[in-house]
Amino acid sequence: MIKNVVFDFGGVIFNLSYEGALETFTAIGLPDASHALDRYHQHGIFEELESGRMSADEFRVELSKVCGRALTHDDVLHAWLGYVGGPVDEARLAYLDELRGRGYRTFLLSNTNPYVQSWAESPAFSRAGRPLSSFLEKCYTSCDVGIMKPDPAIFRHMLDDAGLVPSETIFLDDSQANIAAAAALGIKTYLVEENADWRNALEQMLLA
Question: What is the dihedral of CA 102, 180, 156, 196, to 10 degrees?
Answer without folding.
Answer: -40
